[in-house]
Write a structure and sequence with these properties.
There is one protein chain. This protein has 2 domains: 55 residues, no CATH class; 177 residues, Metalloenzyme, LuxS/M16 peptidase-like (Cytochrome Bc1 Complex, Chain A, domain 1), CATH 3.30.830. 43% of the residues lie in helices and 15% in strands. It has a 5-stranded mixed sheet with strand order 1-5-2-4-3, with helices on one face. β3 and β4 form a beta hairpin. α4 crosses α10, α5 runs antiparallel to α6 and α7 packs antiparallel against α9.
Length: 267
């Protein structure tokens, strides 16, 4: 949450004070103000009669009118955040955020495949370097996320206070090191993992409907499975290096939680 200065940094469950302040009247007023049909997306997937569904939608929502207020654009921090939350626990949690690219960017698929090289399973770099080789953590991961117009990466490590500093040092070093390039084996494994997950997701009507809605929201159109597959397969080791040349990994925002306050590594 500390990565955004916009409302996107707020907790999705709210605050105790905010929840206690809600009453039926202001809840209804907020619903009437925000829940409007203009710009709404209804995505369907599965075996259905389109004409029948369209008629039902018209019956249920035909008299629904109006436009919602403009949505706040996501705004990341200008200066990286370095924050420690003191807590007397047996474990130390480390969260890292840094910039990526949105789904409309020409480098988007190189970015996603590179992230899968970092954290696409038990053979991925972070699992191998941070957990298997050094035994520093019980969990480590990285992910690529996107809103409209912005992309960002999140990394996480869970460890013990005694190993927390080394964990942070190695984690950030590996996030930077991937800019030096990936091997053919890493590339192939990442692609296979991504495409296998994609095919499995397409078996679920719910997941497919969600993908349709996300595509239309992010891109203004719906991608086919073949389009995504071709784009992933087109990523090469060279295109990943070129991505990191244009978008070097830097300016980490780091939040740690636990008893140990960590030093910022010199990368």
């Amino acid at each position: 949450r500390e990565y955004f200065t916009s409302g996107h940094g707020r907790s999705s469950i709210g605050t105790r004070e905010g929840l206690n302040a809600i009453n039926l009247e202001n809840l209804r007023a907020d619903h009437a103000n925000r829940f409007k049909p203009q710009g709404a997306i209804l995505a369907l997937a599965g075996n259905f009669d389109f004409e029948a569904v369209a008629a039902q939608v018209e019956t249920l929502f035909g008299d629904w009118e109006g436009a919602a207020p403009p949505i706040e654009e996501p705004t990341p921090v200008r200066t990286p955040v370095w924050q420690h939350i003191e807590q007397d626990t047996a474990q130390q949690q480390i969260g890292v955020a840094y910039s990526g690219v949105p789904s409309t960017d020409v480098d988007f698929y190189a970015y996603r495949v590179a992230t899968s090289v970092l954290s696409g399973g038990m053979g991925a770099r972070l699992f191998t370097e941070v957990r298997e080789k050094r035994g520093l953590v019980y969990s480590v991961s990285a992910s690529a996320s996107a809103h409209r117009g912005i992309g960002y990466s999140l990394a996480y490590a869970g460890t013990t206070p005694a190993r927390a500093q080394e964990t942070l040092d190695v984690l950030l070093a590996e996030l930077v090191k991937i800019g030096d390039g990936v091997s053919d084996n890493e590339l192939d494994r990442a692609k296979i993992g991504m495409l296998s997950s994609l095919v499995m997701q397409e078996e679920s009507s719910r997941a497919r409907a969600g993908g349709i809605a996300r595509d239309y929201w992010m891109l203004g159109r719906v991608r086919s499975l073949d389009e995504v597959t071709d784009a992933v397969n087109a990523v090469t080791s060279a295109s990943i290096r070129e991505y990191y040349e244009r978008h070097p990994v830097k300016d980490f925002s780091v939040v740690t939680l636990g008893p140990a306050k960590l030093e910022q590594p010199q990368l």
